[in-house]
Amino acid sequence: MAVLQPVRGTYDLLPEAMRAHRHVVDTAAGVTLCYGFEEVATPVFEFTEVFSRTLGDTSDVVTKEMYSFETQGGDHITLRPENTAGVARAFITNGLAQHAPVKCFYAGPMFRYEKPQKGRQRQFHQIGVELIGAAQPQADVEVIAAGVAVLKSLGIYEETTLELNTLGDPASRTAYRDALVAYFSAHKDKLSEDSLMRLEKNPLRILDSKDPSDRELVKDAPVFGDFLNEESKAFFKAVKDGLDSLGIAYELNPRLVRGLDYYNHTCFEFTTQALGAQGTVMAGGRYDGLIEQMGGQPTPGVGWAAGIERLAMLANDTPEAVRPMVIIPLGDAAEIRALTLAEEIRAEGYRVEMAYGGNMKKRMKHANKIDAGIAIIMGDDELAKGVAMVKDLDSGEQEEVPLEQLVGGITAWELAEMYGEDGLPSDPQD
RNA sequence: GUGGCUAUAGCUCAGUUGGUUAGAGCGCUGGUUUGUGGCACCAGAGGCCGUGGGUUCAAGUCCCAUUAGCCACCCCA
């Protein structure tokens, strides 16, 4: 609007939005830790090859969505468009193979040069988990279960649908891909413009086309099931059985594909109707070929990523801001004592604001404006008596409390009055 | 990258067929005298009408471009 705009597709996280993000991240970190995923952080930029060599030369992410630049030293750098490649790189460079299986959780900004929409920014944020070094289908189940637990903790699981598919092992996938190319190539005249492109880049995507003419063709297209070899079928069955035994509902979606090349076997998405065209809330799958493709030893892996913005838009149980208590000193001696009193109460883990400036009324209004729950009014005469007037700003009740009790005893008094029975912050130090 | 819609105060929006000093609500600041807030009342500040061109005696209003947002496609989290 004004001359000073944020860069297209970026935005500021002001306290209210930041709290929603924090809630998503903290919830996910806590839940996934129960599954053994420990938080890690990798750089927000990597050498460009980390992404270009792994994501696939034909993927949209590589061909048109990367923020890449050359440094003064001549290095080719790219802001990470996703974090699986970065984690995989860290796995290799830190020699984590000896600790396999490695389970990690991450949260942070990702960058994609896309046309912004609601729920789609150029700098956005993702949480995700990766389980590297476990080839068993039980690992897929565990990863998906962790995702379910996160969604449940955020109170949005009921709004999502788990869509599940298998991409098979590379042999199955290649065979199917070839069959699809053969089939659609024979009907090029009926394919949409987009799908002609897809035929070159990612034929599997044609199956998911929204074009009516494409859809007609898709009806008679080869079915992936016919090309899955026994191992791939058994693997997929084991994943489904695991989910069944956990009572995790899913819908098989044979058209569910991945834009990134390193996926194989299991792929899944949690989708919702509540976010318009940006319906994917959490997505992931197995990527057994990735580490090897990057130059490491052959190492299987499985994981998912979820957009924090999208999760935050769905979650409506974001905690309220912690209400402060406000100290209102009146008089020179009280002003001085208030400084130390504030420090003492803060040291106990409470949010304390000072109301300086203005007369009593001004300061009370200030207390009100910052949504304080408690006002500690301390004039020179109270100070002389060694007390302070403690006022509950919701009920209007107030009473004199000896200063020494105030510091040591504020906890119970303040919490009870300030938050009532519910809405109690679990730990005010957080 | 393609197509459509939108752009007026911090926020949500009015601004008639182009016509004087561009409005409201909320919010913000100050006040309604003494050390007690919320409510009410009074007053005030705050707008290159997204930006740049053009048409016209005259443009917030019409035209073009540009930027940004929104929506759909593509793709994705």
TrEMBL record:
<feature type="domain" description="Aminoacyl-transfer RNA synthetases class-II family profile">
    <location>
        <begin position="36"/>
        <end position="324"/>
    </location>
</feature>
<dbReference type="InterPro" id="IPR036621">
    <property type="entry name" value="Anticodon-bd_dom_sf"/>
</dbReference>
<keyword id="KW-0963">Cytoplasm</keyword>
<dbReference type="InterPro" id="IPR045864">
    <property type="entry name" value="aa-tRNA-synth_II/BPL/LPL"/>
</dbReference>
<dbReference type="InterPro" id="IPR004154">
    <property type="entry name" value="Anticodon-bd"/>
</dbReference>
<protein>
    <recommendedName>
        <fullName>Histidine--tRNA ligase</fullName>
        <ecNumber>6.1.1.21</ecNumber>
    </recommendedName>
</protein>
<dbReference type="InterPro" id="IPR041715">
    <property type="entry name" value="HisRS-like_core"/>
</dbReference>
<feature type="binding site">
    <location>
        <position position="112"/>
    </location>
    <ligand>
        <name>L-histidine</name>
    </ligand>
</feature>
<dbReference type="GO" id="GO:0006427">
    <property type="term" value="P:histidyl-tRNA aminoacylation"/>
</dbReference>
<dbReference type="GO" id="GO:0004821">
    <property type="term" value="F:histidine-tRNA ligase activity"/>
</dbReference>
<feature type="binding site">
    <location>
        <begin position="262"/>
        <end position="263"/>
    </location>
    <ligand>
        <name>L-histidine</name>
    </ligand>
</feature>
<keyword id="KW-0030">Aminoacyl-tRNA synthetase</keyword>
<dbReference type="GO" id="GO:0005524">
    <property type="term" value="F:ATP binding"/>
</dbReference>
<keyword id="KW-0436">Ligase</keyword>
<dbReference type="InterPro" id="IPR006195">
    <property type="entry name" value="aa-tRNA-synth_II"/>
</dbReference>
<keyword id="KW-0648">Protein biosynthesis</keyword>
<dbReference type="Pfam" id="PF03129">
    <property type="entry name" value="HGTP_anticodon"/>
</dbReference>
<feature type="binding site">
    <location>
        <position position="130"/>
    </location>
    <ligand>
        <name>L-histidine</name>
    </ligand>
</feature>
<dbReference type="InterPro" id="IPR033656">
    <property type="entry name" value="HisRS_anticodon"/>
</dbReference>
<dbReference type="Pfam" id="PF13393">
    <property type="entry name" value="tRNA-synt_His"/>
</dbReference>
<dbReference type="GO" id="GO:0005737">
    <property type="term" value="C:cytoplasm"/>
</dbReference>
<dbReference type="InterPro" id="IPR004516">
    <property type="entry name" value="HisRS/HisZ"/>
</dbReference>
<dbReference type="InterPro" id="IPR015807">
    <property type="entry name" value="His-tRNA-ligase"/>
</dbReference>
<comment type="subunit">
    <text>Homodimer.</text>
</comment>
<keyword id="KW-0547">Nucleotide-binding</keyword>
<keyword id="KW-0067">ATP-binding</keyword>
<feature type="binding site">
    <location>
        <position position="258"/>
    </location>
    <ligand>
        <name>L-histidine</name>
    </ligand>
</feature>
<feature type="binding site">
    <location>
        <begin position="82"/>
        <end position="84"/>
    </location>
    <ligand>
        <name>L-histidine</name>
    </ligand>
</feature>
<comment type="similarity">
    <text>Belongs to the class-II aminoacyl-tRNA synthetase family.</text>
</comment>
<feature type="binding site">
    <location>
        <position position="126"/>
    </location>
    <ligand>
        <name>L-histidine</name>
    </ligand>
</feature>
